[in-house]
Amino acid sequence: MSSLPRKVKSETKALTSEDDELPSFLNLSSESEEEEEEWEPKSKIAKRPRLPKKDEAKPKKVATPRSAVARKKVKKVAIKEEMLMLNMVSMPFWQDLSVPVAPAEGNRMQLLKPKEEDVGTKPKTLNQKQEAPKKLQVNSFQGKNVRSLESDEKPSTSVPVMGNQVKHEKSEEDFAFDEPPFKKIKSTTCPEGKPVKNLGGNKIKEEFEMNWDIVQVLSEITNVEPWVCSNLIRLFQEENTIPFIARYRKELISNLEADALREVQQTLEELRTVAKKTHTMIQKLKKEGKLSGCLLTALLNCRTLEELDHVSAPYKTGSKGTKAQRAKQLGLEPAALSLLQNPMELNLFSYIKPNTKGLSNIREVEAGVQHILADIFAKDKDTLDFIRKLCQQRYICIQSALAKVSSKSGNEKDIDKFQLYHEFSCNIKNIQHHQILAINRGENLKILTVKVNIPDGVKNEFCWWCVNERWRPKQFLKPELMKILRNSVEDAYKRLIYPLLCREFRSKLTSDAEKESVMMFGRNLRQLLLTSPVRGRTLMGVDPGYKHGCKLAIISPTSQILHTDVVYLHSGQGFREAEKIKRLLLQFNCSTVVIGNGTACRETEAYFADLIMKKYFAPLDVVYCIVNEAGASIYSVSPEACKEMPELDPNLRSAVSIARRVQDPLAELVKIEPKHIGVGMYQ
Fold first, then answer.
1. 84-89 LR contacts (CB < 8 Å, sep 24+)
2. CA angle, 336 as apex, 334 and 339 as ends, to 5°?
3. DSSP string, 500-557
4. Are residues 489 and 371 in the same domain?
5. What is the pLDDT of residues 361-377, one digit of tens each?
6. Could you check whether the bond before residue 5 is cis, i.e. omega within 30 degrees of 0?
7. What are the residues facing 593 on neighbouring strands?
8. What does pTM read for this prediction?
9. What single string gives the DSSP state of each residue in 616-680?
10. Where is the stretch described as Disordered (predicted)?
């Protein structure tokens, strides 16, 4: 105790002498435990420490008699300070004896207790009920928790706050305010590389609601998992671009390629177009007073534009109406519904009206009921789904033949172009895309007639299923009513369902063929534009020809035009022209000849090959190559070529273009319209 400051010793003696019931060291620890049991911290989470109060000049306190509660508080503070001092005295000399001292408050000194003293003590009653709201004060300095002993009315506690309790606090990354954190997907719960299958949580709300789920339909059409489709719809709604999604949202799209993303986006736009047109049609029919509950359901079940046209065609302005509509106007709809639901009470003779057209006899009444039933069957969702599934399991072929009108009064040249398709038949699952496009062109020119052949087995099975399962009457049918039902099913298939299936098959085949043609053009164009350039050489471009001669153009390694000329190699003057070519090659030190693959290409190639084999151009080691000249003639008369080479003849411009296609293909081919480059399925 001799090493302690004199002021501290005097304060300690003064405080301990005021209370006669000062316990021994054995009772000190138990008393501190009692104090700890009396109070429980409000929260385990460490709070920011208070800053020490500024020293303020306070007037001297007058000594007044203390109450028992005040003496008890002072006694406890004094006991803790004495324990701290005695522990420091008993500490070995190699340990640090320094004690942090806080600025003095009032008439006492504040000692900051190190963390090591609290390691061994644990609070006994952390889970007990809190009696009084008191605050826990924690000072943290260089990773250590330090408690401050203050001389306020409320004493500090000895409850240790461990470092790991602070670490368990929930990180800010996992907090979500009203909406999911789209931009912070990669967190502790969803690390990189694991798919996030539920981005938004709630069902996707579209602007135009339909009877089908857009996520499921999109998944069926594109063969992409539903959760990926759901995530993609939300990402597209947030106006994310395909490059951004493909690069930075891989965990949301199951690592799909950019082409697959474009296909999903295009299909999504088509479905939304169908939904938008459907609701426009509904509003139009509602305004005209033609909308019924059955028609509304049929419209909301449409998934393609073909189905929408099939359902809405009879209700368009200017339409005469279908046979079913005319029969409904005559009042035969209750009879048709009664045939399916309550046939025992149906009496068709009661609907006969001799003076009314369409109801004059029993045959006309039966025909009207049959037309209404056929219309109901053709617009039923389950019926259409069954016939589509049935067609997928059977052999459906597309056939083309020469039209009778074109064979009599048609252009022979055009007819010969489609000779392969005069008697053509192929399964729709195996037909090639270019064949579909060729058949469509022939049909547009009225040279070919095209039809989709569905076998009779599909019709027979479909009719049996409708009569015996889907549209089976709820009660016994009389033979004459059963005949009406069968005739209605056959009429629905032949007059309504079969044309709808043909349109769907043709539309699907055409759409796929057009997509493939664009993709093929892109692949071929990519390979053409990425052809390796021949740099650092002086080139001679040759545009071959017979009557007008072969056009020559010599360009420098930097694509500058050095010389242009015309030689006639195929008119008996080949030897004399060879001297001219040799002189030009030697003059410009040109050792590479580029020949276009147009008219007279093979003859020009044989001419140069013969001269090279005889080493006619020695000492130059001349080589030649053949390049595709598609689009060169069109480019030579284009406005771009006129601006670039205003003084040259169009024939010579094509020779320059041929030479530059070898020197820098990308820079030269971008000047030509894509449709003239000649790399697509059809030109």
1. 84/111, 84/113, 84/117, 85/1, 85/4, 85/8, 85/12, 87/117, 89/1, 89/3, 89/4
2. 105
3. HHHHHHHHHHHHHHHHHHHHHHHHHHHHHHTPPP--S--EEEEE--STT-EEEEEE-T
4. yes
5. 888 888 899 999 998 89
6. no
7. 540, 624
8. 0.58
9. TTTTS--EEEEE--TTHHHHHTSHHHHHHSTTS-HHHHHHHHHHHHHH-HHHHHTTS-GGGT--S
10. 1-72, 118-137
Q: Which of 465, 494, 518 is the last residue of a domain?
A: 518
Both 291 and 263 in one domain: the answer is yes
d(CA 453, CA 545): 50
CATH code, 334 = 1.10.3500.10
Neighbours of 264 (CB within 10 A): 23
- Is 656 inside a domain boundary? yes
Long-range pairs, 406-409, Cβ under 8 A, ≥24: 406/445, 406/446, 406/447, 406/448
Round to whole Å and give the CA distance between 462 and 464: 5
> Of 229, 225, 196, which Cα lies nearest the Cα of 214?
229
Helix (H, G, I), strand (E, B) or coil at 478: coil
- Could you read off the pLDDT of 619-644 as tens digits, one per residue? 899 999 999 988 888 889 988 899 99
**Which tokens is 99 given?**
């004690």
Q: Do the Cβ atoms of 512 and 433 come closer than 8 Å? A: yes
**Start-to-end Cα distance in the chain:** 106
Q: What is the DSSP-derived secondary structure letter of residue 150?
A: -
Q: Is residue 209 part of a domain?
A: no
Q: What is the predicted pLDDT for the residue at 356?
A: 81
Q: How far apart are CA 9 and CA 498, in angstroms?
A: 109
Under 8 Å between Cβ of 302 and 278: yes
pLDDT < 70 stretches in the chain: 1-203, 317-320, 406-410, 682-683
| Alpha-carbon span 596 to 545, nearest angstrom | 10
pLDDT for res 120: 43
| 277 and 368 housed in the same domain | no
The total of other beta-carbon atoms located within 10 Å of residue 573's CB is 13
Are 189 and 174 within 8 A, CB to CB? yes
Examine residue 337 and state whether it is found in any structural domain, yes or no.
yes
Could you tell me if residue 43 is left (phi over 0), alpha (psi between -120 and 50 degrees) or otherwise beta?
beta
Domain boundary among 311, 339, 369: 311
Same domain for 474 and 593, yes or no, is no
CA angle 141/144/149 to nearest 5° reads 80
139-152 burial: b if 16+ Cβ within 10 Å, else e:
beeeeebbbbbbbe
Rg (C-alpha) for the chain, rounded Å, is 47
**Strand ranges, E, within 114-217:** 139-141, 144-148
496 and 631 share one domain:
no
DSSP 355: T
Neighbours of 135 (CB within 10 A): 12
List the domain range (segments joined by +) for residue 332: 323-396+454-518
Same domain, 576 and 511: no
Total domains present in the chain: 3
> Can you read off the two tokens belonging to residue 107?
């008439």
Q: How far is CA 130 from CA 133, 135, 148, 154, 447, in A?
A: 7, 12, 22, 15, 95
Asked whether residue 302 is assigned to any structural domain, the reply reads: yes
Whether 335 and 476 share a structural domain: yes
Which tens digit of pLDDT belongs to each residue from 122-163? 444 434 444 444 443 434 334 444 343 343 444 444 444 444
